[in-house]
Design goal:
mainly alpha
């Protein structure tokens, strides 16, 4: 299966503004960006998740596959400034069996197909969030600097 390419424009200009922000503000923006992409993938995977009319013992105990698909912030990263989000199947351990197939169950790569089909949408959501995040944080900083400047008078 061939890989998919995405092109993001305007990133160089955004990066120049981004680099001027304090590190903690950069981290906040990056986390919002990662979450925006993960939200798109989570929704796509939930929509693509197979649903059975028959409730298995596992789904009785742990809930339906679709209900177990969630996202979370990745806390432990290699770099202090790295940020990420993860889409996971929670307690639905059988999602892997469905995805890759096992004896008696043919592969149904619903997660891979959903992420491939929605990668452009996720990139667009991340790009939009980057712009909104930088703008929002810059406004906050400008407001706090203006307040500090007034108090010095």
């Amino acid at each position: 299966m061939a890989g998919k390419r995405s092109t993001v424009t305007g990133f160089r200009e955004a990066a120049q503004v981004f680099d001027r922000l304090p590190e903690r503000v950069q981290n906040r923006v990056l986390q919002r960006v990662a979450n925006a992409g993960a939200r798109v993938f989570r929704a796509a995977i939930q929509a693509a998740a197979p649903v059975s009319d028959i409730q298995s013992a596992a789904s009785k105990k742990y809930g339906h596959l679709r209900d177990n698909i969630k996202q979370r912030v990745m806390r432990k990263m290699q770099s202090k400034s790295a940020r990420g989000a993860q889409v996971h199947t929670g307690n639905a351990f059988w999602a892997l069996f469905i995805e890759i197939g096992v004896r008696g169950i043919p592969a149904n790569p619903f997660m891979r197909k959903a992420t491939e089909d929605h990668s452009d949408t996720a990139v667009e959501a991340m790009r939009n969030m980057m712009g909104k995040g930088i703008e929002a944080e810059a406004k906050k900083l400008a407001g706090s600097y203006a307040t500090a400047k007034k108090s010095l008078r």
